[in-house]
């Protein structure tokens, strides 16, 4: 009986068969394919992620009912469980690079990295094409070093797709959206300049022209934190900097980052870092530190 190819299996069923691979992402297929005339795939469903890059020619690709006429440089991506079909165009060549991978049996938040995307863009003569080609070359060679190179290139590509998608979103944003982003940056800069002072949402409202609730929602959506959370983040990082570079006591550090009560500062610092400032400094200095907090 012919053994099924690794790319067609469930992630857990591939792990025992992989060689020189000890951590995710696990690559189960990386090759270039020159399609014969009339070649096609109909309604296939994989249990792993797939990237399909067109090296030359063209083909009709369908993912969950969405059709894409893919040509040289086009890169498509689909997730586990997404039904897809591929058909060549009569009289046209089709040479593609296929990459199938997974992250083991643990769920990976791919939608956070590549939200909703199937068509990742066209990368003819782009660094993406070079990295994909290098990945295949390394994957096809035996040995730990080559497998590590292939895995590293895959993670670099995923991060690159995320960055490029973000850049496209900014470029495609409306003038109003760009204006909103500019005003949020002004609010962020205000927090940076006044991080040691009491946070007043009304000050940020005056800077941005937004209502308080809208400001908080949009700030978190843009920067990943609410204004208050961002201020606390700045205070923690500044406290570390003061302790390391200026050798201040915990009380002095607390005052410099906006806390009159050292115990309030100590609780905040430990909540955010998992350790007290004294313990943090003890990992950096050999001399005794006053365990004030």
Summarize the model shown:
The protein is an alpha+beta fold and 293 residues long.
Question: Which key features would you list for this structure?
Answer:
293 residues, alpha+beta, Jelly Rolls, Arc Repressor Mutant, subunit A, 8-stranded antiparallel beta sheet, 8 strands
Can you offer a commentary on this structure?
The protein is an alpha+beta fold and 293 residues long. It folds into two domains: 6-171, Regulatory protein AraC (Jelly Rolls, Sandwich), CATH 2.60.120; 173-293, Arc Repressor Mutant, subunit A. Helices cover 45% and strands 20% of the residues. It contains eleven helices and eight strands. The chain has helices spanning 11-14, 110-113, 127-139, 144-172, 175-193, 201-208, 212-223, 227-245, 250-256, 262-273, 277-282; strands spanning 26-34, 40-44, 49-63, 66-71, 74-78, 84-88, 94-102, 119-122. Strands 1, 2, 3, 4, 5, 6, 7 and 8 form an eight-stranded antiparallel β-sheet that branches. Strand 3 and strand 4 (66-71) form a beta hairpin. Helix 5 packs across helix 8 (227-245). The longest helix has 29 residues, at 144-172. The protein is elongated and about 75 Å long.
